[in-house]
Design brief:
about 210 residues; 6-stranded mixed β-sheet; single chain; Rossmann fold; 6 strands; alpha/beta
Length: about 210
């Protein structure tokens, strides 16, 4: 039987960063494999429990603990701060549940990119599951207007800016969040919303 528990990992400027822990009631060992999952959404939208339950159930049936965790979203928070707070959140969970000994990272799209950064920065994982992830955000398809997104009605940057909150958040209504991402991809400004300065991109570049 699958047990589901929601815990608070961290509080960041009055924003609660939580995690959902899925486990089997039959699995009481401390040496179980832990899958730590980061959701997709272009680092702008999405929420931690977006993975279909059928995926999670397969992990649980194979004696794994599955943890999905919040992370701060852009552009309210820049990527360097997002990554720093994510590492703090993982450390908090690790102290409570001793997940570091047999940890696998799992990311979906933008979540996979964050996993790459975590591994680069020293998070020790025995493996990494990438669901259509990318390892680089400085590629031309990200820094230039993207033809796929320009087919849709334009969201002017000034209109997208009106949807940006004045406080950090880990999720939000799709009708508010997706236009921010769409505008960034249409006008090639997505990267600008992620980094405080173009010079900071060097710290976010990964080599293959």
């Amino acid at each position: 039987m699958m047990e589901i528990q929601t815990i608070s990992a961290l509080n960041y400027k009055n924003t609660s960063i939580c995690a959902t822990i899925y486990s089997s009631s039959d699995n009481q060992g401390t040496n179980s494999t832990t899958i730590l999952y980061l959701h997709g959404g272009g680092l702008v939208f999405g929420q931690r429990d977006d993975l279909p339950k059928s995926y999670i159930e397969k992990f649980i049936k194979n004696n794994c603990v599955f943890i999905s965790i919040d992370y701060l979203l852009s552009p309210e928070v820049k990527l360097d701060e997002m990554l720093k707070v994510l590492k703090q959140s993982i450390s908090s969970i690790s102290r409570q549940y001793q997940i570091s000994n047999n940890l696998f990272l799992m990311g979906r799209s933008a979540g996979a990119y964050l996993c790459y950064l975590l591994i680069r920065d020293g998070i020790k994982a025995k493996g990494f599951i990438s669901l259509y992830g990318y390892h680089q955000i400085t590629l031309p398809e990200f820094t230039n207007p993207a033809p796929f997104y320009t087919r849709f009605p334009r969201v002017l940057p000034m209109n997208a800016q009106l949807l940006v909150k004045q406080y950090p958040l880990v999720k939000g209504p799709m009708q508010d969040r997706y236009p921010i991402y769409l505008s960034g991809r249409q006008f090639g400004t997505w990267i600008n919303s992620l980094v405080p300065l173009r010079s900071c991109l060097v710290s976010l570049i990964l080599t293959q």
